[in-house]
Design a protein that fits this description.
By secondary structure, this protein is α/β, with parallel strands linked by helices. The protein has one domain: Purple Acid Phosphatase, chain A, domain 2 (4-Layer Sandwich). The protein contains four helices and 13 strands. Strand 11 and strand 12 form a beta hairpin. GO terms for molecular function: hydrolase activity. InterPro entries: Calcineurin-like_PHP (IPR004843), Metallo-depent_PP-like (IPR029052), UPF0046_metallophosphoest (IPR051693). This is Calcineurin-like phosphoesterase domain-containing protein.
């Protein structure tokens, strides 16, 4: 199975060209810029029409209109929205959790991380794990970390084959540690402009 990973398109999804072939495309959140329902619908229409056998996505912190929607009605059978949920695709266990500020404020974010199943093969989150493809400048801090330490500890215990995320626009790329391939696929820069990138694909 080949996976294509993209993230943080922020409304520019229709400007992505020459997407490579894959069995599954995964978008790890921030498909909107302002979090409006209109933006989300436009993204989902584009995403549903892509020529992949399966299409998987989670919401990011910009995608506020998705908060409270555990499921998205009317999606085709080959399109899967994960909100602290997952599916088995050809024997590969996918699981995804969104990143909503409400989770951090009401104290449920850590519980959702705890609920990541032990047998997850492909984990999709919006936020990175602390210290892995999550470092960038923020308000003058040159070594600011966008990742979550509790997520880091959960991932190194679960040891998924792949952990796919975005959120930090300055850390595009992939790295392998602890037996897991980590992937940050944020396709825009800190000014929300598309970067020149080589798309990230993985075989699993």
């Amino acid at each position: 199975m080949t996976l294509l990973h993209i993230s943080d398109t922020h409304g520019l999804h229709d400007q992505l060209t020459d997407l490579p072939a894959a069995d599954v495309i995964v978008h790890s959140g921030d498909f909107t810029l302002d979090g409006s329902e209109k933006e989300a619908i436009e993204f989902m229409q584009w995403f549903c029409d892509l020529p992949y056998n399966h299409k998987v996505f989670v919401a990011g912190n910009h995608d506020m209109c998705m908060y409270g929607a555990d499921k998205v009605e009317g999606l085709p059978d080959d399109v899967h929205y994960f909100c602290n949920s997952g599916i088995d695709i050809d024997g590969i266990k996918f699981y995804g959790m969104p990143m909503f500020m409400e989770y951090a404020m009401d104290g449920t974010y850590e519980q959702h991380i705890k609920d990541i199943p032990d047998d997850t093969d492909v984990l999709v989150t919006h936020q990175p794990p602390y210290g892995i493809l999550d470092g960038g400048e923020y308000k003058g801090q040159a070594s600011y970390h966008y990742g979550d330490y509790f997520l880091y500890t959960r991932v190194i215990n679960v040891k998924p084959k792949l952990h796919l995320f975005g959120h930090d626009h300055n850390a595009y790329g992939s790295i392998e540690q602890f037996g897991t391939a980590f992937s940050n696929a944020a396709v825009v820069d800190e000014h929300y402009k598309l970067k020149e990138i080589k798309y990230l694909t993985y075989k699993i």
